[in-house]
Design a protein that fits this description.
332 residues, six-stranded parallel sheet, elongated
Length: 332
Amino acid sequence: MTNIRKVAELAGVSVATVSRALKSPDIVSPATREKVLKAVDQAGYKPNLMAVQFRSQRTYNLVVLVPTIANTFFARVISGIQEAAQESGYGVLLCNTLGNEAMETQYASLVSTRQADGVIQLRAFNPFSENAFPAGAALPMINACEVLDDVPCPTVKLDNRAAAREATEHLIALGHRRIGMIKGPRRSPLTRDRQQGYQDALSAAGISLDERLLCPGDFTPLSGYRAAKTLLALDARPSAIFCESDEMAIGAMSRIKESGLRVPDDISVVGFDDIAFAFYSDPPLTTIAQPAEAFGREAVAMLIEVLEGRQVDNLVLPYTLVSRASTATCRP
């Protein structure tokens, strides 16, 4: 059987370097890592992964808890996670939780039973019990997207309040005063922060908040369709609607057009996320673009830092307002 010494010979590096390149690829230069991997292929070397894991006390598996893989934004985050994990020599154990806390707790227990190294959580729930780890020990988890306010783990997030305020200000600048809002799930921190940003913009412009213009949703197209139906039935319907997700915005536009109204001639619509369908919707959707894949890549990088015992700070990613054809000047 070809051994690690043969790989080192072919790559022109030491046995220790080969070992590091296979066990902890992030600490080896890309050029050296490439030489080692080519030598591994050339030699037909099959490393004993069980032995590697035993010596390093690592499984090189990461658990990812996602509320629903049906959501286009989360799918992009997962893509970023998968890409970064593979580059760093880690596997991904994906759990489509549907918000089920018992299921999330079960998957997180893979860490305490040494079947996985850490968790990336994409919603606002801590799946670890209080006594899962020794007092003072760093929680082997990164929270991304929906941030936990009271859990001591690093987070990757967006300034959702500021982004929602900018989206609403965009509509106000176009002359809209009666602006509806289709919200996300009631328990989501994203819903709270985005509604606050919406209210910040209204207040700064001297526009009174009308609770009838706030409609619940759940980030799905169907909930956007239903909420738009409610808003259009008001005696004084809105001239614009800000939706907390692109999927809800696309559902809302479908209902608006079905009712015989036009976007943006009769009603302007703004979304949030900038999913691929936002560009191809009819009309193309004005939205807040957030870097979904970067959420995933940064979460992996931060979790590896935590697992290696380093201090990790929270990270706030940038957003951009993308103006397209779904918004226009308010008609009297």
